[in-house]
Specification:
138 residues; Rossmann fold; seven-stranded mixed sheet; 5 helices; globular
Length: 138
């Protein structure tokens, strides 16, 4: 599997997509954000999600400010399992997104079992985070 295969699965090779990244490793989140923006996508990056109310998620943005995002308007999610939150994780967030939309979700944890759980809950695919890091050049 290479980056093109992942992007094909996530339908990122056919025009601009609205992407949500939920990742608490700041350097990796910034690099992934830059890569996806450089490819022409609209990207919103959170370090964690604390709450979901209806279609609105609230959490800590990459700028370390509390922000919200409307999940109904997201096409693709790059989702870590263990992000900053006292109430949610990748599995519970996958279930919430799946109940709201058909957004394609990439489970990207260093924990292979967590990736498998997120795929079982509706993520399009899972990949070891360190492998994805190498693919995008970090």
């Amino acid at each position: 599997m290479n980056l093109k295969d992942i992007f094909d699965t996530l339908d990122l090779n056919r025009g601009m997509r609205r992407i949500l990244i939920v990742e608490d490793a700041v350097g990796f989140a910034e690099r992934l954000t830059d890569k996806l923006k450089g490819d022409g996508h609209q990207v919103t990056t959170f370090l964690g999600i604390d709450e979901i109310s209806g279609t609105i998620a609230q959490g800590l943005s990459i700028n370390e400010t509390s922000e919200t995002i409307d999940l109904a308007h997201i096409d693709v999610v790059f989702l870590d399992h263990y992000f900053l939150s006292d109430t949610l994780n990748g599995g519970t967030f996958t279930k919430a997104i799946r109940a709201l939309s058909q957004a394609r979700i990439l489970a990207m944890s260093s924990d292979e079992a967590a990736n498998a759980r997120m795929v079982a809950l509706g993520a399009a695919m899972g990949i070891n985070k360190s492998k994805l890091r190498r693919m995008i050049g970090q």
